[in-house]
Amino acid sequence: MYNWYVRLIALAAALALVVVVLGAWVRLTDAGLGCPDWPGCYGSLIVPADPTEVAAANAAFPDRPVESHKAWHEMIHRFAATTLGLSILLAAGIAWRNRLDPRQPVRMPLALLGVVIFQGLLGMWTVTLLLKPLIVMGHLLGGLTTLGMAFWLLLEHLRRNTVIRVRPRRIAKPALAALIVLVTQIALGGWTSSNYAALACPDLPTCQGSWWPPTIDFAEGFVMWRGLGVNYEFGILEAPARVAIHFTHRLGALAALLLIGFVGLRAARSRSNPAVRQAGRWVVAALVAQITIGIGVVWFGLPLFLATAHNGVAALLLLATINLNHATVTHATA
Predict the structure, then answer these.
(1) Domains in the chain: boundaries
(2) pLDDT of 36-47, one tens digit each?
């Protein structure tokens, strides 16, 4: 049974990455409300296509007429997320049933199941609360938490026979700090996207033609909760608030570049441990790719391919940083 558990965890990690990228694709194609209800789409498990069904759907949701392409974007994401949830449910069930096997972790697979259940609730609230930015950002972080936990469990299997010789404190603590900074920066990215602030600063390296934008409103830009009943599709903030969000994301990117780059390069130069060295190289490679794509997103005016890739590579950078943290826990280093 343990082998089936490993297969399901590997499937869950792969599916979680796909779901994160699909979630970004849905947001960027303005399809977050492509299906105005949940869990179905206009009361059905598939998008209405027959003219009679479309007419009935439009009558039931007069404020949200059927846009088939947006609805299918949302439903593809939901189908993938449902498959992910089922794989985690099966893995958690096997972990509990196989709990007497010394190789079998139990607590973390069950915790992962709890996370994915809460993630489903966030998906529902994303729709029912009309794309409230705090919920959308939480949904993104929940998806990445699911991805990170599944990946960590997979690493636990791959490195379960590794002997810990020395706790690498000189890299372990900075690696943890890098992970925290990265998660914070990803949250800022989610806040930027959910408030439609990605192009609030259309120039580089300045913002609005200045190193410090002349019109910027941090107080309004970071109000986390604005009550219920507000439709946040396409954003509700004025330009100065969106500039504040985007500019903060840029400052966070600079901090992340410096810290994660330092940690990655330090790990990549490790002489006594090939696993830590290789993990550091992956961090540096993913970081360079992410910064390059981020610049391209602004430079080329938010093209869909690059903007989606920016989210996908952020997830890969997260995995690389998690891998480095895991390697520092299970391997000795200089």
Answers:
(1) 1-161, 168-334
(2) 999 999 999 999
pLDDT digits (tens, 9 = 90+) for 210-248: 999 999 999 999 999 998 889 999 999 999 999 999 999
Six-digit token string for 211: 């190193």
Rounded distance between C-alpha atoms, residue 147 and residue 170, angstroms: 27
Q: How many CB atoms lie within 10 A of CB 117?
A: 12
For residues 177 and 259, the answer to whether their CB atoms sit within 8 Å is yes
The active-site residue out of 53, 74, 156, 238 is 74
Contact 146, 102 (CB under 8 A): no
CA dihedral 276, 282, 285, 289 (to 10 degrees): -140
CB-CB contact of 117 with 81 (8 Å): no
What pTM does this model have?
A: 0.94
Query: Is 220 a catalytic site residue?
Result: no
Read off the amino acid at residue 196.
Answer: Y
Assess whether the previous peptide bond of 102 is cis (omega < 30° from 0).
no
- pLDDT bin (cut points 50, 70, 90) of residue 334 is very low
